[in-house]
Amino acid sequence: MTTTGTTLVIGATGTTGSRTAARLTAAGHRVKAAGRHAATVPGAEPVRFDWYAPATHTDALDGADRVYLIPPLGDSDPAAVMLPFLRRARAAGVRRAVLLSSSAVAEGGPAVGAVHQALPGLFDEWAVLRPSWFMQNFTGNHAHAVGIRESGTILTATGNGRIGFVDADDIAAVAVRALTDGSAPNTDLVLTGPQALSYDEVAAIMTEATNKPVVHRRITHARLRDRLTAHMPMEFAGLLADMDRAIAEGAEDRTTDTVQRLTGRPPHDLRAVLKRELALGG
C-alpha cells in the first residue's frame, strides 16, 4: 500500500489508538503518534499532545492531513476542547477526521455526541466510529478485568441485557480503512462483534478461558453510579451508569456487518480474542 499523507493519531498509547497507529505504519503510512508523554510506536513520529494544553497542538498538527480522534477520557463535555482543536486542524490543512465515539452515543447525544454532530460541518471527509463495548474490557487494566483477576467477579447494572462486544483490533482495522481509503465513509459506523452476549454469558466464557470461576454480580443503577462517583466526576459516573441501564433495557442487543463490509473478513469472536489476549499476558 502506498502512503496517503500523514495521519495524526491522538491517544496513540490507548486501546484503539495504539492498534491503529501500528496498522498504519505497518502498511507504509506516515504517522504522528500523539499522547501526553509522546507515544512510542515503531515507525511513527512521537509527538506530545494534551487536549487541555493548546500549546501542544501546533507541533501535533504540523504536516498532518488526517487525524484519528480519541476524546479526552472522563470528560462529560469533550466538545469544549475538541471543537476548537478541530477548527484549528482544518485551518492547518487536515482534510479527513475519524472520530472514536460509542454505539451508545448517537449524533447530537451527550458527551462526544456533540462532536459527532459538528464533524460533517468541519470536514468534507469524515467518519464516526461507534463501537460497542470492547472485548478488551475483560483483559488488561479495565475495572472488569481487575474484578475478574481479584475476585472472579464482573459487576454491572445490566441485568439480562446483551451487548455485541467488539474486538479492539477490529475497530483499528476499520479505522485504518476510514482514514486511508480513497473515499471517506462520510457517515457513522456502528461496530460490533459477531454475537450479542449477556454478562452472565461472558462470565461463563471467561470461566472456560481462564479455568477459574467467574460470575456476573448484578447491582442496581444507583449503587453502580455511587461506586463510579468514587473514581470520577459525578456527571460522568451518572452517564456510565445510565448506559448500563440502557443495556438492561435492550439498547445494545444487536450486531452489525460493518467490520465484514469494511475489512472483508468477519469480526473476531470473544473466545478467540480471549485466547489471543491471555496468551499475551492480558
UniProtKB/TrEMBL annotation:
The NAD(P)-binding domain, residue ranges: 11-107
Domain NmrA-like residues, every copy: 129-252
Coiled coil regions in record: none
Pfam family, one: NAD_binding_10
Lineage top rank: taxon: Bacteria
InterPro entries with a match to the protein in the record: Ergot_Alk_Oxidoreductase, NAD(P)-bd_dom, NAD(P)-bd_dom_sf, NmrA-like
Signal peptide coordinates: none
The protein's name in its UniProt record: NAD(P)H-binding protein
Organism: Streptomyces orinoci
